[in-house]
Specification:
Helix content: 25-40%
Radius of gyration: 27 Å
Structural class: alpha/beta
Bound molecules: xanthosine-5'-monophosphate
Strand content: 15-25%
Shape: globular
Number of strands: 21
Strand order of the largest sheet: 2-1-3-4-11-10-9-6-7
Distance between the termini: 45 Å
C-alpha cells in the first residue's frame, strides 16, 4: 500500500492534514519529527513527506528541526507554514520576522505556473497564519506564489520535487487547498489512490484470519462506535471464534442494552455474552455522591465484572480492543506527558495472558471507522452514535444513583431523543442528553400542587469537546420536548435548558 508521511512539527492541524490526504484515497500516517530518522523514512518507502506547521521560529534552535538530508533523499516533500520556512532554512534561504505585518486569516494568493497549482486559478483565497516569512529563497528554488504582504507565499525546487507553501491548504478556508493536496499526491508523488474502505476491509479480514488462525478472540463491547465496528470486522473475519462480552451496568440509555444485543446477535456471527449487573452496580454506588467517587466505583466494578467473565471463558487466544489512530498518535509538540491513556485501551489483570492484542482499527480515524461500520452493515444509529461517557447515566443522575432515578432519567432522555430525531435536528448537535439534578420544585397540575423532580436538558455543538457552545435549539422544539417530558414522564414537573458554554462549564454535569 502506498503511503505518505505527515512529519509533525507541533502544528495544530497535523491530524487534519493526514485526514485530508486519506480523503484523497492515499494512506497517511503521522510521526513526530523527533521520533523518526531520514534513514527510517527512506526504508519505509513513503511516496512523499508533508512537513506540518508549528508554533515556532526556525531561528530559535530549541524549536523543532530536522535532518536536512531529507531534502536529498529523493522523496517528494511538501512543507506547510512552519514546514515551508524550515525547508527554506535547511536549504540555505533566509527567514525574517514580518513584525507588525504578519498575516492571519483569509488572504488573496497570486499563484504562478506550477505543477502544484494545476487546475487552480492564478488568484484564489488561502488561509494564512504566520509572523515569519521566507525573505530570500534558497539556491535552486523558484518563487511560485505571493500575496500583497508576503513576498514568498510558495516556492519549489521542481527537479527535486520539493514544494513549500506558507499558507494552510488543509483547512477549508483555503479555497483550492484540497486541489493543491491532490496535485502533490497524484502529480508530484505519483500516487495511484489505493486507500479505500472496501480494500481496507478485505485486507484486514485476510490479515486477521492469518494472525488468529483457529484460536479464539475476546472483545469487550461497550456499544460505542469503536468497539462495535471492531466487533463487526472480527465477526466477518472469524465468526464464532469471536466472543464479545457486553457488560450492561444498567446505566445506559433507555433500551440501549437490548439494541446492542439485538444488533450483534441478529446481524453478526459471534458468541455474544451480555452480563446484566445493574443491581450489583447500584449496590456499590449506594451512598456515593461525589462525581469522582462514582466514576471510580463504576470503573472498578466494570473492570471486576468484565474480567471475571473473561476469566470464566478464558481459553488462550487473543484479546481485541477498539483502539483507533488518534488514541495512538504522539504529538510533535514533544510533550510526552500529555499523551493520554485512552479508555479504548483496557488495562489487563496480571493472571490472564493472551497470545496477543488485536486492534483492527488502530490505523483509522473516527470518520473512517464510521465508513467501515456502515459498509459492514451496522445500523446507522450505532455508527453515528454520539459520545456517551463510560460511567453512563451514573454521572447524569446527580448525587446518589438509585434505580428509580435512573428510570426517570432514561424516560426523559428517551423523549428528548425522540423529539430531536423527529425534528431531524440531531445532525446539528454534537451531543445532547437529559440530566436529573435531584432537585425538587413546586408545580401545579390540574388543581393539585405538585412537588417533584426537575429535568435539565443539555445540548452542545463542538468540534473537539475541548470547548463547546450550548446549542441554539429552536424554541418550538424546546417547547415540545418540555411538554412531552412533563406529560409523559412520571415524577417530573419542570424542565430547564442549560445555557452554559464550555469553558467555564463542562459538557457533563458531573
Ligand atoms: P466534559 O464533561 O469533560 O465532557 O466537558 C467532554 C466529553 O467527554 C465525555 N466524558 C466522558 N467520557 N468517561 C468517558 O468515557 C467519562 O468519565 C467522561 N466524562 C465526560 C462527555 O460525554 C463529552 O463527550
Amino acid at each position: 500500500m502506498e503511503k505518505i508521511l505527515v512529519l509533525d512539527f507541533g502544528g495544530q492541524y497535523n491530524q487534519l492534514i493526514a485526514r485530508r490526504v486519506r480523503d484523497h484515497h492515499v494512506y497517511a500516517e503521522i510521526a513526530a519529527y523527533n521520533k523518526i530518522t531520514v534513514e527510517e523514512i527512506k526504508a519505509a518507502g513513503y511516496k512523499g513527506v508533508i512537513f506540518t506547521g508549528g508554533p515556532n521560529s526556525v531561528y530559535d534552535m530549541s524549536s523543532p528541526h530536522f535532518d536536512p538530508e531529507i531534502l536529498n533523499a529523493g522523496i517528494p516533500v511538501l512543507g506547510i507554514c512552519y514546514g515551508c520556512q524550515l525547508i527554506a532554512w535547511m536549504a540555505g534561504g533566509t527567514i525574517e520576522s514580518a513584525g507588525g505585518s504578519s498575516e492571519y486569516g483569509k488572504i488573496k494568493l497570486y499563484a504562478q505556473d506550477s505543477l502544484i497549482y494545476s487546475d487552480i486559478p492564478s488568484e484564489s483565497i488561502v488561509w494564512m497564519s504566520h509572523t515569519d516569512y521566507v525573505s530570500r529563497l534558497p539556491e535552486g528554488y523558484t518563487l511560485t506564489g505571493t500575496t500583497d504582504k508576503c513576498p514568498c507565499a510558495s516556492m519549489e525546487n521542481a527537479s527535486k520535487k520539493i514544494y513549500a507553501v506558507q499558507f494552510h491548504p488543509e483547512v477549508t478556508h483555503s479555497e483550492y487547498g484540497n486541489q493543491l493536496l491532490y496535485n502533490f499526491l497524484y502529480k508530484v508523488c505519483g500516487c495511484a489512490g489505493d486507500w479505500v474502505m472496501e480494500s481496507f476491509i478485505e485486507d484486514t479480514v485476510q490479515q486477521l484470519r492469518e494472525t488468529i488462525g483457529d484460536k479464539g478472540v475476546i472483545l469487550g463491547l461497550s456499544g460505542g462506535v469503536d468497539s462495535s465496528v471492531a466487533a463487526a470486522l472480527l465477526s466477518k473475519a472469524i465468526g464464532k471464534q469471536l466472543t464479545c462480552v457486553f457488560v450492561d451496568q444498567g446505566l445506559m440509555r433507555k433500551d440501549e442494552g437490548d439494541f446492542v444485543e439485538n444488533t450483534f446477535t441478529n446481524l453478526f456471527d459471534m458468541n455474544f455474552v451480555r452480563v446484566n449487573c445493574q443491581e450489583a452496580f447500584l449496590a456499590k454506588l449506594k451512598g456515593a455522591v461525589d462525581p469522582e467517587d462514582k466514576r471510580h466505583i463504576i470503573g472498578t466494578e466494570f473492570y471486576k465484572v468484565f474480567w471475571d467473565e473473561v476469566r470464566d471463558r478464558y481459553d488462550g487466544g487473543f484479546f481485541a480492543q477498539g483502539t483507533i489512530y488518534p488514541d495512538r498518535i504522539e504529538s510533535g509538540k514533544g510533550d510526552a506527558a500529555k499523551i493520554k491513556t485512552h479508555h479504548n485501551q483496557v488495562k489487563m489483570p496480571e493472571d490472564i495472558t493472551f497470545d496477543g492484542i488485536i486492534e483492527p482499527l488502530q490505523d483509522l480515524f473516527k470518520d473512517e471507522v464510521r465508513k467501515v461500520g456502515e459498509k459492514l452493515g451496522l445500523p446507522h444509529d450505532l455508527v453515528w452514535r454520539q459520545p456517551f461517557p463510560g460511567p453512563g447515566l451514573g454521572v447524569r443522575v446527580i448525587g446518589e444513583v438509585t434505580a428509580e432515578k435512573v428510570k426517570i432519567l432514561q424516560e426523559a432522555d428517551w423523549v428528548l431523543r425522540d423529539e430531536i430525531a423527529k425534528a431531524g435536528y440531531s445532525e446539528n448537535l454534537a451531543q445532547f442528553f437529559a440530566v436529573l439534578p435531584g432537585v425538587k420544585t413546586v408545580g401545579v397540575m390540574g388543581d393539585h400542587r405538585t412537588y417533584d423532580e426537575l429535568i435539565a436538558i443539555r445540548a452542545v455543538t463542538t468540534d473537539d469537546f475541548m470547548t463547546a457552545d450550548w446549542a441554539k435549539i429552536p424554541y418550538d422544539l424546546l417547547e415540545r420536548i418540555s411538554n412531552r417530558i412533563i406529560n409523559e414522564v412520571a415524577h417530573v414537573n419542570r424542565v430547564v435548558y442549560d445555557i452554559t458554554q464550555k469553558p467555564p462549564g463542562t459538557v457533563e454535569w458531573e
